[in-house]
Write a structure and sequence with these properties.
Length: 205
């Protein structure tokens, strides 16, 4: 499973780094030459549209790769006799990558349709020169609360497409958590039973 582990780690790095780099880049582009931010200009709409195209590219590349890796990791976990620490770390990274991808999807929808979420300001300037980066952090937060079914209620999807994507994220979360943790429990119980049998056999020899 080491091959898929490395692929998952690489996907995590590329997804996060590419998104953070682009949001930081467009934050700088939306400022004037003195580094000052003018909330009344049209730069948020202009660069927000360009950022949405970059996010869409990242999503279209990372999503099928993630699904392929996820399926193979689950298969490998099911075939392994024992779950080790590397497997647990890989599952943790798998959860983080899933949330990162869904965070990008929500951010893309927000940039294209600013009124699709309640609890988040639209693309009107707030005077924050790190507007795009902070919004990305907000949607990563929303993705994690949706994935782990916390749902604080401070942010909620307002359009049908956002609600459907939230449902899809919940279904993936339910599948991953129930199926993978059931594998963990089964493997650990089988391993402990095997150790008990070996101890019993040694005592009788």
């Amino acid at each position: 499973m080491l091959f898929f582990d490395k692929l998952m780690y690489l996907l995590l790095l590329t997804t996060f780094i590419s998104t953070i780099f682009t949001t930081t880049y467009f934050d700088k582009k939306s400022q004037n030459k003195k580094g000052e931010y003018n909330p009344s200009n049209k730069s948020l709409y202009k660069y927000g549209k360009k950022l949405s195209y970059v996010l869409l590219t990242i999503i279209l590349i990372s999503l099928p790769i993630f699904l392929y890796i996820m399926i193979n990791i689950v298969k490998d976990l099911n075939s392994n006799k024992v779950v080790n620490r590397i497997d647990i770390l890989t599952i943790l990274v798998l959860f983080i990558v899933a949330n990162s991808i869904f965070g990008n999807i929500y951010y893309f929808l927000y940039l294209r349709y600013p009124n699709t979420f309640k609890g988040i300001n639209n693309l009107k300037g707030t005077g924050d020169k790190y507007f795009f980066t902070r919004k990305y952090q907000t949607f990563i937060y929303f993705s994690f609360t949706t994935f782990f079914t916390v749902g604080y209620g401070d942010i909620s999807p307002h359009s049908n497409i956002c609600r459907m994507i939230s449902v899809i994220e919940y279904i993936i979360s339910f599948f991953l958590t129930t199926f993978i943790f059931s594998i963990f429990l089964t493997k650990n119980i089988n391993a402990s039973n095997l150790q008990t049998e070996l101890k019993f056999m040694r005592r009788n020899i």
